[in-house]
Amino acid sequence: MRLLHTSDWQIGKVFRFADDDILPVLQQERLEAIGRIGRLARAQGAECVVVAGDIYDHLRPSERTLRQPVERMRQFPDLRWHLIPGNHDFNERDGLWERLARTGLPDHIVPHLAHAPAALDAAGTAWLLPAGLGHRHVIGDPTVWMDGAATPEGAIRVGLAHGSVRSFGEEAPGHNLLAIDRARQAGLSYLALGDWHGAQRIDARTWYSGTPEVDGFDLGGAGGGQALLVTLDGPRAEPVVESHAVGRFRWARAQAVLTCADDIAALEGRLRAIDPDDPSRVLVWLAVSGALGLSELEGWQARIVDGLGSALRLLRIDGAPGLAPSSDDLDAFGPGGAVRAAAETLARQAGEGDEAARAIAAAALQRLYLLARDGAGGMA
Amino acid sequence: MILRGLEVERVRRFGDAVRLTGLGPGINLLGAPNEFGKSTLLAALRAVFLLPHGSKARPIAELQPYGGRGAPRIAVDFTLDGGDWRLEKRFMQRAFARLEGGGERLDGDAAEARLQDLLGVEAGKRGAEAMGLLNALWVTQGQSLVQPDLSDPARATIRSCLEADLDAMTGGDAAGRVLARVTADLAVLLDGRGNPRGRFRAAKEGEQEAAAELARLETRRQGLEDDLNAMADLRRRLAHEDDVDRREKERADLAEAGRVRDRLRDYDARYRAARAVRDHAAAQLAAVRQDLAGRAAWERDLAAGTARVAELEAALQAAQGAHDAAGAAHAARLEAVRVADAGRQMARRALDLAAGRVERARLVRERREAAAALDRLDEAARAVTQAAAELDACTIDDARMGAIRKAERALDAARAASRAQATTLDVTLADGARGRLVLDGQALENGRIVVTDNAVLRIEGIGTIRIEPASHGRDALRVELMGAEEVLRRVLGAAGCADIAAAEAALAVRRQAELAFQAARTVLGGLLASADQVPATAMEAARRRLADLDVRIARIGEADDGTDDPLAVLEAARQAMDVAEARYDAAHRALLSPDETMRRAAEDLARLRAEWQVARDGAAQLARDLEAARAVEADEALSARLAAGHEAAERAEQALVRIEETRPEGTEALADATIQRLERTIQDGHARLAALRQEMAAREARIRVAEGDGLDERIAAQERLRAAHAAEDAACAREVAILQCLRDAVAAAERAATERYLAPLARAIQPALGALFPRAVATVEPDFSISALSRRIDEPFATLSDGTREQIAVLARLGLADLMQARGRPAMLVLDDALTYADSGRLDRMFDILTEAAGRLQILILTCRTELFTGLGARRLAVEPVGAEIAEGH
Prior knowledge:
Strand order of the largest sheet of chain B: 7-6-5-4-1-2-21
Organism (chain B): Gluconacetobacter tumulicola
Number of domains of chain A: 2
CATH class of the domain at 2-150 and 785-887 in chain B: Alpha Beta
InterPro entries (chain B): P-loop_NTPase (IPR027417)
Radius of gyration of chain B: 85 Å
Oligomer: heterodimer
Protein name (chain B): Rad50/SbcC-type AAA domain-containing protein
CATH topology of the largest domain in chain A: Purple Acid Phosphatase, chain A, domain 2
Number of helices of chain A: 10
InterPro entries (chain A): Calcineurin-like_PHP, DNA_Repair-Maintenance_Comp, Metallo-depent_PP-like, Mre11_N, UCP033093_metalloPase
Strand order of the largest sheet of chain A: 4-3-2-1-11-12
Order of helices and strands of chain A: EHEHEHEEEHEHEEEEEEHEHEEHHH
CATH superfamily of the domain at 2-150 and 785-887 in chain B: P-loop containing nucleotide triphosphate hydrolases
Largest interface: A-B, 54 and 52 residues
Distance between the termini of chain A: 76 Å
Strand content of chain B: 5-15%
Number of helices of chain B: 20
Shape of chain A: elongated
Strand content of chain A: 15-25%
Keywords (chain B): Coiled coil
CATH superfamily of the largest domain in chain A: Metallo-dependent phosphatases
């Protein structure tokens, strides 16, 4: 049989760094990914889609947010959508999943709230062992029960769980921690996992699908933006897993140390190369350091901040190139006069005192440079 | 620039065209009284040069003729940069402008543009005055006290003048533009007081609002969490309430509790009955024991009573003896008192007798004295009577003596008068002639003889000489003399005296008699009790006292013949009396003191007697009671009853112990409480179930509402909003910091540069300033104002006197105009009613300064005090009417 493995849709996610223009686009794209997944499943002949938790980003989404993914899945009645609660949308009593049930889900959308085997196909050749979460943090491994879960002899056992197979430090010691060899212990043909937003193969039968639409700059594994097409030829056969891109936006982190105009040009080239065809699909979080002269700073502002900032979907910049004014720079303010004197004062201030004051002085000098060059911005 | 002519028409009071004539280089003076129109001419000058002809601004409206509307027309002729120009403008209706000169003629806006170019001014906004330095130099009345208020173009002009002096460009313009831009950018983010505005303020407020909304949402989410927790709890309770097994158990518990209570009640009844039997037996036994004890007590009491009676009888006898002894002692003391009393009375009689004797002796002595007093009184009375009789025998008294003396003096006077009229004869007898000379029969001796009456002198041997005094009224004198002699005789006769000497002697006798009478009266008066007492009364009183004493002596009786001294006898009697009294007191006290013993003896006797009777009666009663009791129940019968009571009590106690051993667990009250609790639990079960279901429904509804709102999602969105506002706020704050940093740097640099290029301005002003205020230095500010004058100390401009401030204001303008003139810019100074505060010394120096400046610069002075400016050697200007054909020359 064939199934499509996805997880961590995080519908309703709010991106704090995004402004009012970008946020709705990012949120909308996460919904669009559902359609792309459905179409991919259809195209590849998958019978069902298993969603390994975190369909929603919030435990209490608005009514519209609650219904939006359901409506997208409703468009694919030929597919069965198997859902489990993750840590973001865990199965709270009187909570999200009961609301969802009250909306009247169509038969092909199946939430699995109990830890009980469920047939994946009408013939009963494949069985799903869902291990959704009943709390945000579950003490102990929610997949333990799979070891003893009874399924018909010879059936394909597919685990569906949400959690981490590795502990990431002390912040969540052992929460939702899954045994890394659960597939082997429980005799699973395939264990479809959610929680990690980057696609990751743990072993031949254990995979994280990652989020279908990238939602962060730091993703492990193969990054996000994929769904996994899993082909199971029998209970003993090793699954064939293919990764298919379903995401639209590309998220990237970049670092640059700028000391001259060439550095700026190189950086621009690097960032534009992320997606030369459509830079508007790219979100970049750039960390900058270094120091530039006044004219180079102008170039930085024009080519990177203003130019790339407009070309890319999002350009988030940490830090800024420092100011290292040269004598040539100061000559741009003329041989003498008040403006030149002010520029010299600012250049001095930019090189002494605490860092915040230095940065302000550097920015002021840069501004003066622009104003003086442009004749005070058309006021003259 | 030299102004050569000014014409105005339909300008305020100047309805018809007039021309200011006499204008030329150097100093020009228009002296005219108030209301002449000097300020109007200055306003016209400003208007034609600085206001566009199309302007309808207030300065133009104010130029219109009084009392009606009209189109002011102004024309000037001036020389600039060696060329002659004529400028003419008409405002309001049919407005136009025309500039002619240098071979060109321009009209309308072209003329205006060329004019501004010539003057180096900048067009004003919306019809206002063009801005440049001329505004500051053409001072209107009342502004002479303040320094030139320079517009931006004016400042720029000065700056460019000054910068031309420097080797390098100061960049003042560029800095000014940067500063203006930065200030404008800052004004977008900060208001006048430095508080955020616009998007800065919106960011701050947005962040606050978002935080507040977030707090509200968090509160709601907390409420939802609470509801969810409560819901879980309600479910647990509902499951508990709804449990069938639990309810069955409750009913079984209730039945069991009922059975327990029944058992407890049965036991309680049996226990009560057994305890009553036991209590009865115990009471019986106690009654027997009480009877036995009573009988033994009676026997003890009887024995004790009998002993007591005997004891009391012995005591009674002793008490009787004591009582009798006390009675005998009392009788003896009574007798002693009686004897002492008799002695005392005897002593009293002796004492009275002795006292009588003493009294009688005193009275006898007193009578003797009274009799002597009576004799003295009698004798004195008689002496008075005798003296009075002697006095009465005297015939003369002071009155009669007075009359005699008066008569004698009258006689003397008569004789003297007679002698005064008489003839005097001085007789000197010759030896042997004595007796030979006889007058009226009387021989004359040597001496003077007065002849008052006719006389006959016979000289023996010679004959007689008849002398007849020739006095006037001699007869009358003689009568008077004879009368006086008669009176004397009569009064002497009345006094019984022969002559005056006798009268005098008689008067002396009378005086002696009066003295004797007075002495006798004095003696009598001394004996009388008072001054007004009559001697007879006194004597009567003395006699009565004598009689009284006689009576009292008689009353005391005859004195015994005792020769003893009565006083000694009296003293002895008194001592005897004291002894007798002392004896009586002692006996009396002795009688009183032993009475206590007697009384106690009597009391003891009575008490003992009563006690004895009580004891005796009590013993008799006890004996009777005991006898009666034994008659009813003999001692043996009583003992048998005791044994039977013991046995019955023992049996009842054992029965009670046996019942107690069957006592069930718990108490009836506990069993009742259990039954009530179980009954209530069962009864309330249904109600609780219903209430729980109701509350769950309510909570569920609330939860659904909250979830429908998408609280988590909204909180996330709100957090993003808050972060966005915070970022915007930080960006604005950073922008403000950058702009302020830039502004401060540029302003500081500009200030420094200004200070550098202010030096030439200071230099331009300094010569004139030094001439007016020797050794003074002015402080010039970056806005080209003079802020202070430094002579010995710094004096801020505002604190200087009106005169000094005015002079400095004029100098400042002069300096600016000089500066402009030197840089080839058009400059010309107008002073309207200035220098009126200057004293004559200062005024002279100002004239020198103006005169010196006038070599380079045209100066126009308008004043209403022409006499002040006579020393100025200025051109005199006049205002003359212009022919209409000249005025309307175009």
